[in-house]
Amino acid sequence: MEAFRQEIIISAVIIYMIFCVMTGLWAMRRTHDTSDFFIASRGLGPIVVSLALFSSTLSGFGFVGGPGLVYSIGVSSFWMVIISSTGYAVCFFLVSKRIRMIAELRNCISLPDIVAARYGSEAVRFMLAITIVLGVMGYLATQILAMAVVMQAILSGTEIFANIGLVACVTISSAVLIFYCVTGGIIASVYTDVVQGAIMIVAGALILIAATSVFDGGMQEATSIILRDDPETVMPYGAAGIMASLGWFFVFGLGLAGQPHIITKMMMNKNIKDNRSMLPLSLFGYAMAALLWVSIGIVMRAAVLDGRVEPLALPDDAASVFLSMFTNPLLAGIVFAGLFAAIMSTSDAFLNIGTAAIIHDIPKAIQGKSIDNDLFWARIVTVILACVAAGFALYSHFQDATLVALLGAFGWGTFAASIFPVVAIGLNWKGATVWGAVTAITFALIINFVSQLAGYTFPYGVSGQLVAFVCSMVLFIGVSLVSPKPSIDSDIDRVLDI
Q1: Contact of 393 with 166, CB cutoff 8 Å
Q2: CA 131 to CA 354: how far, in whole Å?
Q3: Which residues, 6 or more positions from 205, have their beta carbon under 8 angstroms from its beta carbon?
């Protein structure tokens, strides 16, 4: 079997790609309007939504970027992945019930629809829609880049495609992604999540077993090797330092409740009472899948230091190299297929919310209605968004070889700072005002983009995402307190009382 390792891995990926195409065609028959395309007509069961929630959190960010970040800066990134589990509790307790009720009351199909209903303001809808479009570019680029990096690692191991370039891999993977998204919309995404989530749960446990068997002394020996080389990387804050780690603690702990691709899925469950079972199911799935992030990064760093593996060309290659060298071919094939599943469904979710912002929310905020023939234009805009994000991914990679996880952290931070106060706090505080929401979103975007695009670094290793998050929270609360008392529609007021 070992002699056919590459063939087994490629076959698994091809089978998954075919599955994506078939799922897209199946879902297309169930997609009749924009409600189907964007929120699956709020008809999904708790297991489907739970799997969609946790798998959307990790995706290419966790499968590729996570191990790469551990490989490069040590345990610092544990502050991202571990604290995110508390974010699920924050998300469910602050957001899930009210967002689902407002969605049904006002027939909402997008997150900007929700905030427009909550604040009674088209200005807030417009600002949130712009935030989603901008954030989607960074996060969707993460997914496409992760998918291309993995595809290149797989195909370059064959004789025929030994010299395949990253551009070709981006083109191939984006073509499948576009077909899958355009035909099936969110229905294709969430049902793929069922398969993907199951694979991620099983793979997380099996990968941990495989990782512990690389060294005779297991993870303890791997950690000891890293400790001898650079003790700082396995200290509580890792090589990134205390301020960066604490910044991720807040941005990822609270910020999960500000991720539109996650909280939008909370509008899709059939019954509100399903929330009771969705939280534990999501937490369990996330915890199991996160084992991959932690174990691969540590073992690959130790294996390189120990001389068992050549130094990686890019940290983001850590997961691909590990699967190719240290796992059973069948397991490697299944995990690679699961990786593509994670990236595909999350990419679909980002394309979905970005498209909704462009063809539904921005026009509605400007002219009072979404564009005509919206399902047709939803599919056209999906293609355009995917192509733009693919170009951004390549530019980011070749400009400075940005780590997938750091690019993902930028997208996550943009959403967390802009959306968490307006949605998570706004749905629980009647004193939140339009001016508070607009001010918070505006400053969150400015700080995030200036720190990232202009390359500005804050003193003491403080991340731009943390500064944006704190400023956004302070401004949202402060401006709301000094603004005139808001007027809330009676039906929304009753929801906020629950």
Answers
A1: no
A2: 9
A3: 288, 291
Q: Are 114 and 423 in contact (CB under 8 A)?
A: yes
Beta strands in 434-497 (DSSP E): none
CB atoms within 10 A of CB 175: 12
Helix or strand holding residue 313 (H, E): none
Query: Which tokens go with 100?
Result: 């689902």
Q: Which domains does the chain have, with CATH numbers?
A: 2-401 (1.20.1730.10)
Q: Give Cα separations from 346 to 85, 152, 278, 319, 402 (angstroms).
A: 18, 20, 18, 19, 20
pLDDT in tens, 290-349: 888 889 999 999 999 999 999 998 887 888 889 888 888 888 888 887 777 777 777 777
Contact present, 332 and 100 (Cβ < 8 Å): no
Residue 318 in contact with residue 298, Cβ under 8 Å? no
- Residue given tokens 């003491």 in the structure block: 460
HSE of 55, CA atoms in CB hemisphere, 13 A: 33
Contact by Cβ (8 Å): 215, 221: yes
Give dist(CA 434, CA 366) in Å, integer. Answer: 17
Instruction: Please name which of 289, 351, 324 lies closest in space to residue 135, comparing C-alpha atoms.
Output: 351
Give the model confidence (pLDDT) of 176-202 as tens digits. Answer: 888 877 876 666 667 777 777 787 788
Residues 498, 492: Cα–Cα separation, whole Å: 10
Taking 60 as the threshold, does the pLDDT of residue 420 lie above it?
yes
Distance from C-alpha of 323 to C-alpha of 303, rounded to nearest angstrom? 13
* Rounded Cα–Cα distance for residues 300 and 200 (Å): 20
For 264-299, the pLDDT digits (tens) are: 888 888 787 777 888 888 888 888 888 888 899 999
> What angle (nearest 5°) sits at the alpha carbon of residue 48, between those of residues 44 and 52?
110
If you ran DSSP here, which 8-state letter would residue 197 be given? H
Rounded distance between C-alpha atoms, residue 43 and residue 236, angstroms: 44
CB 247 within 8 A of CB 463: yes
Its pTM stands at: 0.83
Tell whether the model's pLDDT for residue 404 goes beyond 60. Answer: no
State how far the Cα of 95 lies from the Cα of 302, in Å rounded to an integer.
41
Q: Per-residue pLDDT tens for 428-474? A: 999 999 999 999 999 998 888 777 766 677 777 677 788 899 999 99
Taking the CB of residue 275, how many other CB atoms lie within 10 A of it?
Answer: 18
Q: Are the C-beta atoms of residues 196 and 360 closer than 8 Å to each other? A: no
Q: What is the DSSP string of 371-439?
A: PSSHHHHHHHHHHHHHHHHHHHHHHHHHHH---HHHHHHHHHHHHHHHHHIIIIITTT-TT--HHHHHH
What is the C-alpha separation between 144 and 270, in angstroms, rounded? 31
Helices H, strands E: what count in the chain? 22, 0
